[in-house]
Design goal:
It contains 10 helices and 12 strands. It is of the alpha/beta class.
Amino acid sequence: MENIITSKDNPVIKLYQKLSDSKKERLQYGLFVLEGLRIVEDALREEARVSHLILTKQAFDRFGDELLQADLRDTKTLVISNELGNRIASTSTTQGVFAICGIPEMKAPVFADNGRYVVLFGLQDPGNVGMIIRTADALGIDGIFMCGSCDLYSPKVIRSTMGSVFRENIYIIGSEDELFEVLKSGGVMTSAAVIDTDAEKVTECGFTGRQAVFIGNEGNGLPAEVSRRCDRRVTIPMNGTINSLNAAMAAGILMWELKK
């Protein structure tokens, strides 16, 4: 076994904590962090650029044989004390498995025939964003566009994706104008998800050709100007006095209808 690192001042440990705490540092280094056995396994399986694999002594003894079977030629492995693992963990019951991973190079969208897409416009809750990415992966959505939303590579978003971040096509778009230009050039019909009763019911409107559904901010929904720029407005019909759903739940229903 390698020497066990116990100091919080170790350069790799200091880098891990910087990346965990700060979007600015993630952007500066082009790196983000992972915590948990499953998501680290997914990163290795999907051949993500894992620069450092960090295991507590306990995790090394329990999971080391399994994890070290991966191709780690470009990965530096560190074993740290259990106490140091607890210090850098962002979960209360850590498994002691951590990694530093390279942020993938952003590629231009490739639109599939009859492609199905989701646009996350202004979403700020990391749990919602992560769950939507996970659901999109499960349902076979062809891509996710993020505009004005929270940081995709924050630990909470990454953890909530449960590994789907490595499998789903995700595009981060800088502005509203650029977003609509990209979708229009790809021949994508856009639908704004709203709660207005005069919008088309998503269960009845039908989706043909390339389609994208816009999901808005958890509290305020889509801005009116964004909704107007979409080709149509759609809504989820609801019973009784309920007039809104959690953003991740609504996105799940909309993606299901997209894929029918």
